[in-house]
Specification:
elongated, 52% helix, three-stranded mixed β-sheet
Length: 120
């Protein structure tokens, strides 16, 4: 999985921004290829705003997703009933980030900067 974000692709596209009227993306074959290339990269790129969570919380999501519901995970964190108090405390302090990571299925691990998800 590439770590390229949609913003990275957008920034690259700006480098090809027209100067004056000499750029014709409709009639220029090379411009069409550029459009196709940038569009494909953009479609495959990661969202810019992925939540960043602790590695131990990442493990909890990977272990619990598909077996438990988000509501169960939040309730267990509130009761400090998860495998570690650190995980429960982090989830209680960051419910929105946890819910976003759980729901999107994609997040950044804080300690490594790695983009991962349920299967990663």
């Amino acid at each position: 999985m590439s770590n390229e974000t949609k913003r990275d692709v957008f920034d690259d596209a700006l480098a090809y921004a027209p100067v004056g009227r000499e750029y014709d993306p409709v009639n220029d074959d090379e411009a069409g290829d550029l459009r196709s290339c940038l569009s494909a990269r953009y479609d495959a790129a990661l969202p810019d705003d992925l939540p960043t969570i602790l590695e131990c919380v990442s493990k909890e999501i990977k272990d619990g997703y598909g077996k438990n519901s988000l509501l169960d995970e939040l309730a267990w964190a509130n009761q400090d009933a998860l495998p570690s108090s650190k995980v429960s405390e982090w989830i209680n302090d960051n419910e929105t980030l946890f819910a976003e990571a759980w729901s999107r299925g994609l997040w950044i691990v804080e300690e490594t900067g790695e983009v991962t998800g349920y299967d990663g």
